[in-house]
């Protein structure tokens, strides 16, 4: 199965108008477990806490 490179961007920092943190990862596009956008809890160094990061498109 092919894997695609995706970028995860912080949603909370974007809403607050602060610098957003971004992470680069891969995902399996044909996976039945994650049909929509990928969401993960990752650390944002600008906010100094763990926040929700969503897949950018």
Care to describe what's here?
With 57 residues, the chain is mainly β. The chain has one domain (3-55): Ribosomal protein L33 (Rubrerythrin, domain 2, Single Sheet). It has one helix spanning 12-16, and strands at residues 3-10, 22-28, 39-44, 49-55. It has a four-stranded antiparallel beta sheet with strand order 2-1-4-3. The radius of gyration is 12 Å and the shape is elongated. The model has no long low-confidence stretch (mean pLDDT 90). GO terms for molecular function: structural constituent of ribosome. This is Large ribosomal subunit protein bL33. Keywords: Ribonucleoprotein, Ribosomal protein. Belongs to the bacterial ribosomal protein bL33 family.
Keywords:
57 residues, mainly beta, Rubrerythrin, domain 2, four-stranded antiparallel beta sheet, 1 helix, ribosomal protein, structural constituent of ribosome, Ribosomal_bL33, ribonucleoprotein, Ribosomal_bL33_sf
């Amino acid at each position: 199965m092919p894997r695609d490179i995706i970028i995860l961007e912080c949603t909370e920092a974007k809403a607050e108008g602060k610098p957003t943190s971004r992470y680069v990862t891969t995902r399996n596009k044909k996976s039945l477990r994650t049909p929509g956008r990928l969401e993960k809890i990752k650390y944002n160094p600008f906010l100094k806490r763990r926040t929700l990061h969503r897949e950018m498109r």
